[in-house]
Amino acid sequence: MKSVNRRDFLRMTGTTFIGMTLGGTALRAHAQDVLSAEDPTAKALNYTAKSTVDGAKCGNCMYIQGEDGKQQRPCAIFPGKLVNADGWCSAWVKRPG
To answer: Which segment of the chain is annotated as a signal peptide (predicted)?
Structure first.
């Protein structure tokens, strides 16, 4: 296993952080269409616009983007689509904090 020196580590983490920041901004800027339950990715991940799982909904998932309080928001799992904040899919992961 190759060890990573400090300079390479900082370069990798800095690049990752910049990519995540710019990627998130681009995701929010381009999300326009509301995700349909008939979308192939939505079907594969069992997306529903109304969660039936206690305590789990798109609004408290780590993948949701945008401002809290908005009903339709971009999601990192479904690029270019808006999900219902009350929805759920099998990729749901509780937002830290």
So the answer is: none
User: Which tokens is 32 given?
Assistant: 């326009």
Is 53 among the domain residues? yes
Q: Is the pLDDT of residue 30 over 60?
A: no
Beta pairing partners, 31: none
For the domain that residue 17 is a member of, what is the CATH number?
A: 4.10.490.10
pTM (predicted TM-score): 0.66
Give me the number of domains the chain comprises: 1
Residue 97: band (very low, low, confident or very high) from pLDDT cuts 50, 70, 90: confident
Distance CA 91, CA 12 (A): 26
